[in-house]
Structure to design on (359 residues):
């Protein structure tokens, strides 16, 4: 980074990115500049080809079969989650989610509940677990299961494959929020039984802000979340029926998508197993060092639940100090940049007993 700091706010945004990502954004702005899908001249065609390469790279990264056009591109995971939730659920439907959810899931579900959608929340615990038997009972008759793959406060990975197996048996679709796991943990939509995968580009995937997407399994149909121009079928009053155009109204973030493509390619070159192993070693070192400091209250477990991983997150409180004050002092006195508060996940803090104070 430009200034002499220790940046540890990666759960919010990966501020230190590979040079390949920076170069890809700069090259797009300098040498391409055109909007994908909006013209037939050489630069617009080049932009369109880059977007297709990004879809293909993301499909390969998530082991998503079939048409790469089912990787629809959005501004972030929040937009993608809203598109999925409001696209699937109707009044009278029931959705099952967990207490580990970010507000990107919690708030849309609450809004849908005011429209007649029923919601069941599976409780969590400080170790980051979920009761599979309770989940199986809750899923009976449900339309949708929403699972946060990795929690952004505790850092735990949930047993997505086991939950998805129970959802399939109940006839429910499975929507996974991979905002905190994509690029940190292996995500395999086929192996994990996922129907809809929402992800953001600016965290583990190392892309710029304003990037993300929603993968939609073949056979799952969603209505358009937005309406407007797509560069095709302009004489029709309706949005195009085919993906990805149906989900992508308006001009695309060409520079951001170029950076996202570079980030995904960087990860694929190194391999997710190696990336995750390195992050796990760093997290373990940090956790053990913090645990030796008197007055530090550790909230994240030393490792993930049995058989599962952690997304590399460590959450603490410093004695009786206000979390915001501790973060401010770390910045001003030591040049260590962290995030304090409720992290847009108040229910996770309720699980930890920090709902009133944050961490």
């Amino acid at each position: 980074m430009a200034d002499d700091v220790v940046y540890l706010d990666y759960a919010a945004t990966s501020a230190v990115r590979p040079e390949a990502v920076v170069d890809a954004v700069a090259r797009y702005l300098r040498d391409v500049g055109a909007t994908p899908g909006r013209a037939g001249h050489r630069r617009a065609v080049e932009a369109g080809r880059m977007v297709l390469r990004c879809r293909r790279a993301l499909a390969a990264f998530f082991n998503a079969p079939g048409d790469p056009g089912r990787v629809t591109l959005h501004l972030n995971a929040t937009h993608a989650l809203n598109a999925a939730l409001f696209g699937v659920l109707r009044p009278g439907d029931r959705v099952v989610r967990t207490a580990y959810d970010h507000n990107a899931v919690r708030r849309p579900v609450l809004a849908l509940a005011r429209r007649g959608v029923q919601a069941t929340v599976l409780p969590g615990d400080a170790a980051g677990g979920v009761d599979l038997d309770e989940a199986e009972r809750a899923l009976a008759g449900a339309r949708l299961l929403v699972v946060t793959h990795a929690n952004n406060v505790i850092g735990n990975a949930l047993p997505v494959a086991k939950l998805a197996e129970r959802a399939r048996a109940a006839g429910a679709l499975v929507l996974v929020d991979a905002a905190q796991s994509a690029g940190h943990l292996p995500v395999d939509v086929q192996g994990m039984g996922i129907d809809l995968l929402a992800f953001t580009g600016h965290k583990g995937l190392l892309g710029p802000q304003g990037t993300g997407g929603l993968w939609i399994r073949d056979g799952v149909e969603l209505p358009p979340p937005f309406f407007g121009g797509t560069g095709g079928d302009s004489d029709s009053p309706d949005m195009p029926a085919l993906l990805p155009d149906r989900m992508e109204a308006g001009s695309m973030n060409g520079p951001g998508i170029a950076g996202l493509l570079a980030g995904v390619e960087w990860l694929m070159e190194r391999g997710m197993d190696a990336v995750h192993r390195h992050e796990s070693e760093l997290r373990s070192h940090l956790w053990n060092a913090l645990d030796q400091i008197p007055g530090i209250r550790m909230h994240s477990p030393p490792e993930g639940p049995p058989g599962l991983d952690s997304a590399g997150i460590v959450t603490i409180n410093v004695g009786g100090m206000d979390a915001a004050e501790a973060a401010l002092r770390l910045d001003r006195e030591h040049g260590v940049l962290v995030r304090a508060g409720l992290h847009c996940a108040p229910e996770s803090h309720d699980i930890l007993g920090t709902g009133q104070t944050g961490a």
